[in-house]
Specification:
The structure is a single chain. The protein has 152 residues and is mainly α. Helix content is 55%, strand content 0%.
């Protein structure tokens, strides 16, 4: 089930799947599964794809129809993403345990994300942003616009 706009973005640039896969350093079969929505895209690859296609992550994941060109660093600032995730949790008035329950994970995993030991898993990131209206681009430090405008 296709749920991302990767195919549309690739077609706009008149690229083949193998071209994108090569350019971002993955095998074509993995990229194909991402595009088809059969395999979860790792967070660092989401960031990379957004930079590659020069669009906002929220647009790729169909959280909004508003397409924006965002200039960002080549790599994710894990500590910035960690501090923003912590801010999201506090704004929602959740404890680490509350957020862990919401995401069906452990409080220690949330603690590791918030301390920058690990980058938040993409399914968790998307769930939080879609449920509460936060921008994935903001959480990952690509944008200063915190909330998704025109959330779907």
């Amino acid at each position: 089930m296709k749920m991302y706009r990767l195919e549309k973005l690739r077609d706009e640039k008149d690229l083949l799947k193998k071209d994108v896969a090569k350019d971002i350093g993955v095998v074509e079969s993995v990229y194909s599964e991402w595009e088809n929505g059969t395999l979860s895209i790792p967070t660092k690859r989401i960031y990379q794809l957004a930079n590659y296609f020069e669009v906002n992550i929220d647009y790729i994941f169909e959280l909004t129809d508003k397409r924006k060109r965002i200039n960002s660093d080549k790599n994710i600032n894990v500590l910035k993403a960690a501090s923003r995730l912590k801010l999201v949790r506090k704004e929602l008035k959740f404890t680490m345990r509350d957020l862990a329950k919401e995401l069906n994970t452990s409080a220690s995993a949330i603690c590791n994300y918030e301390n920058g030991k690990f980058l938040i898993l993409s399914p968790f990131l998307i769930q939080i942003c879609k449920t509460y209206g936060y921008s994935t681009d903001w959480v990952l430090g690509r944008s200063d616009e915190k909330l998704i405008k025109n959330i779907k």
